[in-house]
Design goal:
Elements lengths: L5 E12 L13 H14 L10 E10 L4 E8 L4 H14 L13 E15 L2 H11 L4 H15 L6 H13 L3 H33 L2 H13 L3 H13 L5 H17 L1
Antiparallel strand pairs: 1-4, 2-3, 2-4
Helix pairs in contact: 1-2, 2-7, 3-4, 4-5, 5-6, 6-7, 7-8, 8-9
């Protein structure tokens, strides 16, 4: 048996200077500046807790001569609102950057910046899971063998709640309705523990940082757990902490709608 899921999160960053420097002001003038920019943004970026898959977000923003960052917007979304917001938060924390080199007369730069993560699962769980998916509805007995091995590998880790859900479907396909129901129940219980773990981590960060992003992250953690009331309370704190809160206000409206629909 394994000792739970072991994950390594690899962080990658890259940038593209959109409005290239003219021949009179060769781009070499900005090589050191761009290196410093990348280092400062990298130090300011903290990807979301509990990453389960690879992530990618592309942000377009401008830098004034004074080093202040403005007009930041997501141009390629990761599909995860917390991941996207963490990229924007990194830019807010990194601003202001250094002043432009004295040798250039440029007033601004426009940059596309990529925020990427790769989640590497150690051990054999991922391989067993891939084989279980491959044999599902093709040879369900073999699929069951592989999903059993995947579950043995993680040894009841709450992060692996989804494995029990997959095994429930395989057992149902094999006609084992009792076993399928038991696995589904286990998946729900572990998911609840996982959600609570995520909420506690997000709450601790929010109370320490007292930042709009940290409360947005907390609101999203509550939303994933289906706790819309506390999610609304958290996003209201985010709204109160910044005047640049239109996105947070829209998110609050979404939460209110979901809460109403769930009643």
């Amino acid at each position: 048996m394994g000792a739970g899921i072991k994950k390594i999160v690899l962080i990658f960053m890259s940038f593209l200077l959109i409005n290239s420097v003219s021949a009179i002001e060769p781009q070499e003038n900005f090589s050191g500046y761009m290196t410093d920019l990348q280092e400062k943004i990298q130090k300011s970026w903290f990807p979301p807790e509990c990453l389960e898959r690879d992530g990618h977000a592309l942000v377009k923003f401008s830098v004034a001569r004074t080093g202040h960052i403005y007009s930041a917007q997501i141009v390629e979304s990761s599909g995860d609102p917390v991941y996207d917001e963490s990229a924007l938060e990194a830019l807010r924390k990194a601003s202001p950057l250094a002043h432009f080199p004295a040798s250039t007369s440029r007033g601004s730069l426009t940059i596309k910046y990529s925020f990427d993560t790769s989640v590497v699962n150690t051990g054999d769980m991922q391989r067993y899971l891939a084989n279980a998916d491959r044999f599902y509805n093709v040879n369900n007995r073999t699929a069951l063998d592989y999903i059993n091995k995947a579950i043995d590998e993680v040894d009841g880790d709450i992060n692996a709640y989804f494995l029990y859900g997959k095994r429930s479907k395989i057992k149902e396909a094999l006609g084992d309705t009792v076993g399928a129901a038991a696995d589904l129940d286990q998946s729900i219980k572990l998911k609840a523990k996982y959600d609570q773990k995520r909420i506690m981590a997000s709450k601790l960060i929010a109370e320490m940082e007292q930042s709009p992003y940290s409360y947005f992250n907390l609101a999203h953690s509550y939303e994933v757990a289906g706790d819309y009331e506390h999610a609304i309370e958290a996003i209201e704190k985010a709204i109160a902490l910044t005047e640049l809160n239109n996105q947070y206000k829209r998110y609050k409206d979404e939460l209110v709608t979901k809460k109403t629909s769930s009643l």
